[in-house]
């Protein structure tokens, strides 16, 4: 399908200034999706071996407890939810250590005055107490400012134009007509419920891809959702606002006719296909802030991946690990979604 040329982003000193200002917001959003966390304190391992070592840095039990408090997960009972929260907290701490190590290597410094100005902005916006931010908020701001200094040299109009071209369908208002097969995990299988559903979905996908059945036939035979009566059809939907983020992200990564790998959401395990595309009309200028967020998230993710490859990271036995899968996401409250509870 031919696409219109990508309109150029404006360049010049004024545009560069706007980029620097907007990068504050974009980096904050990227950090929320990636490293997060607060200041790296000396490891508090309670006299035991560290849970994780990141290069020469140690992550101890005290660090983990503080991270769980930041996530609001400190009082979760033992079980899958706590295991997942612990794994997420550990990865946040690892990525924070990696980023702060990069600050030191590049001699990047964040001054108290810079943090003070960021605090003042939060107070003015009503997002921090009038008497100033607490230590945790200041630590988060310090990390955001440091990451901004890491990313800023790579940010220019050409990078934003390339990001718009790459993600155009995600941001220009395009809508996709999608169908899905949804499998409900069997709670009787306990911890194996989701993996078992994923394996079953992989088997169904293999038959579809091999031509053993059509997607609509697979939906009619195997899907647990009411859309099975329509061959799995869910109708047209935009990138944001209708489907769960993991579902929408997977759908918008597909070309028409592709069949996704299994996608896990709170509603089950899905196979997704795109049956039609309704192109959007928004241009680069209209969706600039979204493009900047996408660029920042990608740039930060690429940076952290490079740092992981170049740093020795050792996990103690039994420490929960976050299984990073692009189709998996932390489950938000149930509400609306593809054939989900309403």
Could you explain how this protein is built, in words?
- The protein has 342 residues and is of the alpha+beta class.
- 45% of the residues lie in helices and 11% in strands.
- A 4-stranded antiparallel beta sheet has the order 4-3-6-5, with helices on both faces. A 3-stranded antiparallel beta sheet has the order 2-1-7.
- The model is unreliable at 1-22, 33-47 and 325-336 (pLDDT under 50).
Give the strand line-up of the largest sheet. Answer: 4-3-6-5
Approximate shape = globular
Low-pLDDT sequence parts: 1-22, 33-47, 325-336
- Using the 3D structure, state the CATH architecture of the largest domain: Orthogonal Bundle
Q: What's the CATH class label of the largest domain?
A: Mainly Alpha
Q: Total number of helical segments?
A: 11
> What number of domains?
2
Structural key phrases:
342 residues; alpha+beta; Triger factor/SurA peptide-binding fold; Chitinase A, domain 3; 2 domains; four-stranded antiparallel sheet; three-stranded antiparallel sheet; 11% strand; globular
Brief rundown of the structure:
Helices cover 45% and strands 11% of the residues. With 342 residues, it is α+β, with helices and mostly antiparallel strands. The strands form 2 sheets. A 4-stranded antiparallel sheet has the order 4-3-6-5, sandwiched between helices. It has a 3-stranded antiparallel sheet with strand order 2-1-7.
């Amino acid at each position: 399908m031919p696409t219109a040329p990508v309109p150029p982003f404006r360049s010049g000193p004024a545009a560069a200034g706007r980029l620097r200002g907007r990068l504050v917001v974009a980096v904050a959003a990227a950090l929320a999706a990636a490293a997060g966390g607060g200041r790296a304190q000396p490891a508090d391992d309670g006299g035991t071996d560290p849970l994780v070592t990141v290069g020469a840095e140690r992550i101890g039990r005290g660090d983990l407890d503080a991270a769980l408090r930041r996530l609001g997960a400190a009082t979760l009972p033992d079980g899958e939810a706590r295991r997942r929260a612990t794994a997420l907290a550990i990865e946040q701490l690892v990525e924070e250590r990696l980023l702060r190590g990069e600050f030191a290597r590049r001699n990047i410094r964040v001054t108290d005055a810079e943090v003070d100005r960021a605090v003042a902005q939060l107070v003015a916006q009503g997002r921090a107490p009038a008497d100033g931010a607490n230590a945790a908020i200041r630590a988060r701001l310090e990390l955001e400012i440091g990451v901004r200094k890491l990313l800023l040299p790579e940010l220019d109009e050409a990078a934003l134009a390339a990001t718009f071209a790459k993600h155009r369908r995600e941001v220009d208002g395009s809508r996709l007509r999608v169908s899905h097969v949804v499998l409900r995990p069997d709670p009787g299988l306990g911890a194996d419920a989701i993996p078992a559903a994923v394996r079953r979905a992989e088997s169904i996908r293999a038959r579809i891809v091999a031509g053993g059945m059509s997607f609509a036939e697979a939906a009619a035979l195997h899907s647990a959702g009411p859309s099975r009566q329509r061959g799995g059809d869910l109708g047209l939907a935009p990138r944001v606002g209708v489907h769960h983020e993991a579902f929408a992200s997977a759908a918008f990564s597909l070309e028409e006719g592709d069949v996704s790998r299994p996608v896990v959401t709170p509603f089950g395990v899905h196979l997704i296909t795109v049956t039609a595309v309704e192109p959007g009309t928004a241009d680069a200028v209209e969706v600039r802030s979204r493009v900047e967020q996408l660029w920042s998230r990608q740039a930060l993710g690429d940076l952290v991946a490079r740092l992981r490859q170049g740093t020795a990271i050792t996990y103690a036995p039994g420490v929960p690990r976050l299984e990073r899968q692009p189709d998996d996401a932390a489950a938000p409250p149930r509400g609306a979604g593809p054939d989900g509870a309403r």
